[in-house]
Amino acid sequence: MASACGSGKCPIDALKLGVCADVLANLLNLKLGSPPVQPCCSLINGLVDVEAAVCLCTAIKANILGINLNVPVSLSLLLNACNHKLPSGFQCP
């Protein structure tokens, strides 16, 4: 389980975050209905917000998700879809 203070590191193998690609693609294309967020969100649900943000940053910057993105917007969309918040002043490492 993640610590309450957060480590600022991603405890998840970034390659597993590839499941977030479909979620992000649906969010960016503004498809009607709710995108299936479960596989992505279930990976980051046990994390504090800063760890979730670091994990998704890593995946976005490594282009694991397979699309070129505006990192701050993409990060915020994914975190919001999974009921996480972007920590105040957070910058992708």
Automatic annotation (TrEMBL):
InterPro entries, alphabetized: Bifun_inhib/LTP/seed_sf, Bifunc_inhib/LTP/seed_store, Hydrophob_seed_dom, Plant_LTP/defense-related
Domain Bifunctional inhibitor/plant lipid transfer protein/seed storage helical: 10-92
Region forming the signal peptide: none
The keyword Isomerase belongs to this UniProt entry's keyword annotation: no
Keyword annotations: Signal
SMART domains (alphabetical): AAI
CDD domains according to UniProt: HPS_like
Signal recorded as keyword: yes
Family indicated by similarity: Belongs to the plant LTP family. PEARLI1 subfamily.
Protein name, entry field: Bifunctional inhibitor/plant lipid transfer protein/seed storage helical domain-containing protein
Phylogenetic lineage: Eukaryota, Viridiplantae, Streptophyta, Embryophyta, Tracheophyta
